[in-house]
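Convert to structure. Protein one:
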Amino acid sequence: MSLLELVSVVSSVVIISAVFFLIRRGKLLERYAMLWILASFVLLLFSAWRSLLDTVAHALGFYYAPSFLFLAGFVFLMLILLHFSVVISSLSVRNKSLAQELGLLKHEIEKLRKSLQSKD
């Protein structure tokens, strides 16, 4: 095993360990961690078996296997960005709705306070 392969395998294991550590500490939800775990395992697989990377890359029409890794990394990042955009959009709508409900509740509380003060 060459130094580059060893560094790749160790990096993949470190990423997997970091994701599991963040999940255990409650810093990362499982639904967000699944893509990271999947990508790390694929990277670990290709790091450990370089011939598998070459075989898959050539089967998909790539003549230079590292270019396949760059494309796969780019697609992975695009999926992460799309997922986070969906999450942020839904949280934005939910935040707006909660702010409106809070405003209505504050208005109701003020009305009740005024009615109680007028009865005294």
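Protein two, convert as well:
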Amino acid sequence: MKTDDLIGELSLGLAPVKPLTPPERRLLLWLALAIPYLAVIVAFDGLSQELAQRLAEPRFLLEQGAALATALLAGYAALSLSIPGRPAWLAWLPFLSLAVWLASLGQGCWQSWLAFGAGGLILENDWGCIPSIMLGSLVPAGVLVFMLRRGLVFLPKQALLLAALASAGLAELGLRLHHPVDSSIVVLVWHGGIVLAIALLGRALGPRLLKA
């Protein structure tokens, strides 16, 4: 059999493949679905009475800006991993803004230490943030998993870690709008710890939810 005939026989009856929408457009779609969901959660609990005062603080704005950047970059990187041939370095983008977020919280801890000594680093319990962040992550994470499954993911652990980081980061941002926390050490340990735990859980579930 000639090569042309073999190619024609193998390609007989194949349906055309529709390419995936670029990751930046799918990221906008993800935000269009995730933000209203988080807005409902925030509206249910009500905005913090201290929010106006906190928005006037540069460090608070830096923290929330870095958290938002982490969520957006992690979502973009996760969606990029579902498209073969995309640059591998994209997966590292969200860790730059994550480092800024953690550094801003660390600076807040240092300032508390200088102002109040060891008393400024007392770690209070904040159990209420656990269900809030997990609930806020649920729908955004589910939407991202659905989007990722429509592509071809060769690195499921990394892709779902980034998807979980994006969802948890967005949920943490929403939590700060209605959950007043002044202590940087509380945000660093509790909020940061929960975001990290959700990201690691996503990495563990990656091979099950995303099959290459």
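The chain is about 70% helix and 0% strand. The chain has a mean pLDDT of 83.
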